[in-house]
Design goal:
alpha/beta, Rossmann fold, six-stranded mixed beta sheet, about 375 residues, flat
Amino acid sequence: MSSADQIDALLVGFGHALREAGLSIGTDDLLTFCAGVAELDVTDLMDVYWAGRAALVRRREYVPIYNEIFQRYFFDNDISGAAEHQKKMKSSSNAGATVEIPNTEEGLPGEISPDEVKLGYVASTSEIYRHKAFADCTDQELRQLRRLMARMRVTPPKRRTHRMTRSRKPATIDMRRMVRESMRALGEPRELSFKKRKEKLRPLVLILDVSGSMADYSRNLLQFAYSARRANAKVDVFCFGTRLTRVTKSLDRRSPDDAMRLAGESVLDWDGGTRIGDSLRQFTREARRSRLGRGAIVVICSDGLDRGEPQELAEAMESLARIAHRVLWVNPHRGDAITYVPATLGMIVADPFIDEVHSGHNLASLERLADRLTKVG
């Protein structure tokens, strides 16, 4: 039996357990449940919980029964067949097919506080993780933060184009449409028509510093870039140390672990030196050939510790500022400071060409950056 079949069997068994407890569940409900879990992270029991609650629970009074059966089925392993399926899934070589059963002392997933965040997880310990710097987190906390970041949706801002489209709200009068409509009515005008400029997503380019000085933050910033790429195709991602490497295609994977692994394999100078000027100059040369980054929001994630020539960095930033619509710089060393004064030579040289400086030292700062990106255009 394949890993997917094992997962389906486990989910169907959970549906049968709910049916035995008195819930009215049909075959179509189970199919919807399995299809919903297939679109989520099967290794996260919170995803499984909410998918089942949305697809299998139809009445409010059934929620306590659902919570009890979920607790028994996935935690106590005392329902026939559940333990066997879980053993098979854990022994599978496919990491995406395993289910990690959390500690039951952490509370039942259905018991939600009013502070539940909009990403779909409970904000008990997550709220603490959001404001803790990546450099101070343990490996377990970083894994939890990356699961939370995988749910983020970074939407590029919109821009108005020169093309026009019909508008239902009063705006610019569309004389051409009105003339056509009046000609169909033998010259009698029927109603006012309006038009407005079309909107389209503005390109977003993320250029990430993966040198040794950014070791505490580069993996998490790449996870942020993965979320941005998954949310929209108009996102390009580059990594640089001493050279520039495009990792956009490597991030086009459903599994974030596979995407991180492929991106890491493609970047040959990970945890090496830093030459920001050379890397940005390589990007601007490519942008001139392919129009990459023209009119885009360019986000540079780096601490500004550059081992190259300051003049090269200044010239590259000047060229980038002419190409891009806005240039944002994410420096984790800014922390939670309200005002930021450049402290490194690279930041001092680049500062005249930067529109905004943001921090990326914890999850909360990345959430603020994601919210800002939707409006900066």
